[in-house]
Amino acid sequence: DTAVSQTPKYLVTQMGNDKSIKCEQNLGHDTMYWYKQDSKKFLKIMFSYNNKELIINETVPNRFSPKSPDKAHLNLHINSLELGDSAVYFCASSHGTGGNTIYFGEGSWLTVV
Amino acid sequence: AQTVTQSQPEMSVQEAETVTLSCTYDTSESDYYLFWYKQPPSRQMILVIRQEAYKQQNATENRFSVNFQKAAKSFSLKISDSQLGDAAMYFCAYDGSGNTGKLIFGQGTTLQVKP
């Protein structure tokens, strides 16, 4: 039933490792996003895809690589994890852009030790 | 660049009373959208209310309403008849920039509801 689902919800890993977070939406939306919420609860967009095409790529280290195999999925792969990558990563989706409501997943809490 | 400011890090309200959360933003655009999202301890981001800048009428959703002052670039959220379940962090967000779906968030306001 979950509209935007992410896995895993919790992830603890060591510095230097590579990890992926998967996201799927069943809302029929054509636009998907990754947002990052830091330890101070500040939320900022990282990437967005529309119909599998990258349309927003904020200033994010190239260790972060999103991949959208189809409109319903947007995965986030992170190479060579650093302590500063510890955060909550939210996947989200919307029907187009243009101010349409963006629906968020439950978040994936990444802790790098 | 657009910015969103929530000047109240924390607010508290007595159950059944009314509280207003403040939000101001800075933009040179005339067409944009504003949102309030709620984040309870579960971390889920839940849409509370949405406002289209070209509409003068303030948006309402049950006990939640906004006071949108376009000239003043102000977008406050009023919660009436506060309930314990309203306790959460509330984020104001702006969507402009050619309507890319890029939300710019404020710093958030933590709302405590006292029984």
What would you note in describing this structure?
The complex is a heterodimer of chains A (113) and B (115). Chain A is mainly β and 113 residues long. Chain A has one domain: Immunoglobulin-like. Chain A is built from no helices and eleven strands. In chain A, strands 2, 4, 5, 6, 9, 10 and 11 form a seven-stranded mixed sheet that branches. Chain A has a four-stranded antiparallel sheet with strand order 1-3-8-7, with no helix packed on it. With 115 residues, chain B is an all-beta fold. Chain B has a single domain (3-114), classed as Immunoglobulin-like, CATH 2.60.40.10. Chain B has no helices and twelve strands. In chain B, the strands form three sheets. In chain B, strands 2, 5, 6, 10, 11 and 12 form a six-stranded mixed sheet that branches. A four-stranded antiparallel sheet of chain B has the order 3-9-8-7, with no helix packed on it. Chain B has a two-stranded antiparallel ribbon with strand order 1-4. In chain B, strand 5 and strand 6 form a beta hairpin.
Q: Give the SSE order of chain B as H and E letters.
A: EEEEEEEEEEEE
Distance between the termini of chain A: 33 Å
Supply the CATH class of chain B: Mainly Beta
Low-pLDDT runs of 5+ residues of chain B are: none
Q: Could you name the ranges of chain A where pLDDT drops below 50 across 5 or more consecutive residues? A: none
> Strand percentage of chain A, roughly?
over 45%
Assigned CATH architecture of chain B: Sandwich
| Proportion of beta-strand residues of chain B | over 45%
- At the fold tier of CATH, the topology name of chain B is Immunoglobulin-like
